[in-house]
Specification:
TIM Barrel, 12 strands, about 40% helix, globular
Length: about 270
């Protein structure tokens, strides 16, 4: 429950990507298993996504300027985000930089340098390319909302410190692992200096809790057609409504099934 959130009147469109891999090589980047693989695009499809987005609207924006210069509600900025800090992030960043675009890369710091994940040098190079480095917690706990307050502060606080040192710039952005967000999760993030927190809720409206802006995102999965990505990026209503309806249905299932929801999901998609 996101109690205490305030409407800002600001809108933003954010697309949630994860890893980009070669066909048949899903475990080469990021978390392994059927669940994470659902969010991994093959490299040729990803390039078609970028081409379709470029043809549909102006270039993606940098969220670092969002609080200082919020756009008018009629022209929401587009943000491209990439969760999990997989090894493919460097190549993604290079591709985006070649187009003059900014990406937002959210890193779970306990996995830095492990097989399939970015090392410190890769994170620093992404920052040098001009991309935004943000936290994706330390240990990628799912559901994060169940952690006690002291562990939430540890997850956000230590990850911010580590990534600030590696990137050489203050880390003030983050994304919530697994989409399990709550008022406690946001308040702990705000207490650790996070000013902008991306969720997995498919909405354009921007809310605020304790000085931390909450930005929803539209999920991109392995089978998302380039045209759908472009339509989402352009703010078309129908694909946004479809994602919102699916999100709300999942929310009901999570409430009704509790822990059984993740168990059933893992059985269908494979271990996460």
């Amino acid at each position: 429950m996101l109690s205490g959130r305030r409407k800002t009147g600001i809108r933003a469109i954010s697309l949630m990507y994860h890893d980009v891999v070669e066909p048949g090589d899903a475990d080469s980047s990021g978390f392994s298993g059927g669940g994470p693989s659902r969010y991994k695009l093959d490299s040729s499809l990803f390039q078609r996504h970028l081409n379709a987005i470029a043809a549909a609207r102006t270039s993606p924006a940098n969220v670092a300027h969002f609080r200082e210069e919020p756009s008018e509600p009629s022209s929401p900025p587009l943000f491209l985000t990439f969760d999990d800090g997989g090894a493919s992030s460097w190549a993604i960043g290079e591709t985006l930089a070649g187009m003059g675009w900014t990406g937002h890369f959210f890193i779970p710091v306990d996995f830095i340098g492990k097989q399939g994940f970015l090392d410190e040098a890769g994170i620093a190079e992404l920052a040098q390319m001009g991309h935004v480095i943000g936290t994706h917690s330390c240990s990628h706990p799912v559901p994060m909302s169940r952690l006690p307050d002291n562990e939430l502060l540890e997850e956000w606080g230590r990850s911010v410190e580590v990534l600030t040192e590696i990137s050489g710039t203050a880390v003030v952005t983050g994304s919530v692992p697994g989409g399990y967000v709550s008022g406690r999760v946001v308040r702990a993030a705000a207490a650790c200096g996070i000013q902008l927190l991306f969720t997995s809720e498919p909405v354009e409206s921007v809310r605020e809790i304790d000085g931390c802006f909450l930005l929803g995102r539209y999920a991109i999965v392995a089978g998302t057609p380039p045209r759908t990505a472009a339509r989402l990026a352009s703010g078309e209503v129908l694909p946004r409504l479809r994602q919102l309806a699916s999100w709300r249905a999942k929310g009901v299932a999570k409430v009704l099934l509790g822990d059984r929801y993740r168990t059933l999901r893992s059985r269908v998609l494979g271990a996460e």
